[in-house]
Amino acid sequence: MFEAAKLGASPERFPNLEAAICYIAGTATHAGEVRPWVRNVDTNAFLIFGGRVQPQNGVRQ
Asked: Which of 3, 23, 32, 37 has the smallest count of CB within 10 Å of its CB?
């Protein structure tokens, strides 16, 4: 299960990562505002923050 949020909306839950990514796709980001994000509810790990996929090993690609 995945949870996603974007500016001006409460977090919503999705059955898979692809659906969560589609939900925040194209969301504009602005300096000083809450950024869109996706997290894995089961592990409580943020996978996407600020509209960018986060590397699993902590190294930027």
From this structure: 32
Nearest to 8 by CA among 32, 31, 34, 30: 34
pTM of the predicted model, to two decimals? 0.69
**Whole-angstrom distance, CA of residue 47 vs CA of residue 16:** 12
CB 30 within 8 A of CB 36: no
pLDDT (tens, 9 = 90+) of the chain, 61 residues, equals 999 998 778 899 999 999 998 998 878 776 666 678 889 999 978 787 765 555 555 544 4
How many CB atoms neighbour CB 4 within 10 A?
A: 23
Query: Could you give the strand order of the β-sheet that contains 52-53, starting from the edge strand earlier in sequence?
Result: 12-14, 2-5, 37-40, 45-49, 52-53
